Each structure stands twice: as C-alpha cells, then as structure tokens.
Automatic annotation (TrEMBL):
UniProt-listed Enzyme Commission number(s): 6.3.1.14
An annotated Gene Ontology molecular function: diphthine-ammonia ligase activity
GO-annotated biological processes: protein histidyl modification to diphthamide
NCBIfam families, alphabetized: arCOG00187, MJ0570_dom
Name assigned to this protein: Diphthine--ammonia ligase
Organism: Ignisphaera aggregans
Domain of life of the source: Archaea
Record flagged with keyword Ligase: yes
Keywords tagged on the record: Ligase
Enzyme class: ligase
Claim: Ligase is one of the keywords in the record: yes
Domain Diphthamide synthase: 1-225
Transmembrane annotation, as ranges: none
Length: 238
C-alpha cells in the first residue's frame, strides 16, 4: 500500500500514520488541511501549521508535505479537498488515502467519496476501535499529546496543555462516563496536539496561555512552537 496521509496535528491522524508505517506500508505524501472557519465539520481547526512541524519531526522531505486551505464550509470543503487531491495525484503516485476516523460516519463517507473519484482506497486503521482502550494504548505506545481546546461539559480547563499520561486518561474515561461525552473526543468534545511520538525524531515544544471563552469552552492559545530534543517534552504555560 502506498498512501497519502491526511494529517491534522491531532492524536488520531498521527496514530493512524504511525500504524500504517508500522504495518510496513509506504508513505507517498502528507496533506495538511487548514480550514478558514473554526467550525469546520471535517477538519481539525486548531494550529494546522504545527502539523508541518510534526512532519519535519518525522524527518519527511518537504517535497512530500502539502498544506492546503479550504473554506471550512460544510460540504464545500469536501469538494475543495477533492479537487485538490485530483491535481495532487497527477504529481504523486498513491493508491490509498489514510485518515484517522474512529467512529464518525460523516468523516469516513466524505473521504470515501474523494477516494472514489480518484480511484483509490481509504484506509482508516482506527475505525471501530474500543475508544477507552485506544486512549490508554496511545500513552503506552509512547505518544505524548496535549489538549488544546475543550468544548464539552465535564472536561476541566486545567487539562489544557498538560501532557496526557495514564492518570489523566483514567480521569478522562471516568468523566466521559459521568458526563456522557466521547472518551476519545470523536464527537468534537476536545482537540489535541501530538508533541511526542515513536516515529518522531524530535519533540514539538509549545508555549502559550490558557483562556476560557465560555463556561464549557476553553482554549490553549499557542504563541510559539519549535523542535526540541526527542524525549524531552517541553510545554510552557505562561
């Protein structure tokens, strides 16, 4: 399988890429989609530019990494990405689109539509995974991620920008059972950013401030980001 990975910067797309590489598949390219609107139905809207730094941390050649901007408007953004991918496939040879969808039929069917026009397959290695086990698995396999945005009742704002360990995962699972939100945030309850991963050669360092927008909406506003030494997680909360 020769795949083109859709990378958002979050845990799911990063883990899907890691899984595909671990399974021995060939990475042809990475596409990072930047929605203009913050309320995109399909794409990660928080700091997609940092995904470029993640690609660099993986050691990917710049010629394999593409940043594409979409409107962020429902369905229109799907057509925009579809047209872009058609052009990209004329330059880059791949037979599969890789995505990090877990349970969202909306996401998966849109990517399948794009793949159908290109004549390629969709591979979503996380599809149908037990989400509580998955959250633990991420940490156990060496992924370090932080929550950059909270949009749900039950998730405390002091979780923002904290590197998530197994203790935090247990708390998230317990809170999800209590308040009824998705433990892997597949319903948009929170957004994440990976700062360390087994397939990274460097860590991602970030600096910023926490800000509460409403009672249940909180963000970590990143003002600075850079590559750091692998194995040394550096997250500065100002």
């Amino acid at each position: 399988m020769k795949f083109c990975a859709l990378l958002s910067g979050g845990k799911d797309s990063n883990y899907a890429l890691y899984r595909a590489l671990k399974e021995g598949h060939t990475l042809a390219c990475v596409v990072i989609v930047k929605p203009i609107r913050d309320d995109s139905w399909l794409f990660h809207a928080v700091y997609p530019e940092i995904a470029l730094l993640q690609a660099e941390a993986m050691g990917l050649e710049k010629e394999k990494v593409f940043l594409f901007e979409v409107s962020g408007e429902k369905e229109t953004e799907v057509s925009e990405l579809e047209n872009y991918m058609v052009k990209l496939r004329k330059e880059i040879d791949f037979d599969t689109i890789l995505c990090g969808a877990i349970s969202s039929r909306y996401q998966l069917t849109r990517f399948e539509k794009i793949a159908g026009r290109l004549g390629v397959k969709v591979y979503s290695p996380l599809w149908g995974i037990d989400q509580e086990k998955y959250m633990k698995q991420l940490v156990e396999e060496g992924f370090v991620f932080v929550i950059t945005k909270i949009m749900s009742m039950g998730l405390p704002p002091d979780f923002l920008a904290k590197p998530i360990d197994l203790i935090h995962v247990e708390k998230i699972i317990n809170l999800s059972r209590l308040y009824g939100f998705n433990p892997a945030f597949e319903g948009g309850e929170a957004e994440t950013l990976v700062v360390e991963a087994p397939h990274y050669r460097y860590s991602i360092c970030i600096e910023g401030v926490r800000e509460s927008l409403t009672e249940f909406e909180h963000v970590f506003k990143i003002s600075k980001y850079w590559l750091g030494e692998k194995g040394r997680t550096c997250v500065a909360i100002l």
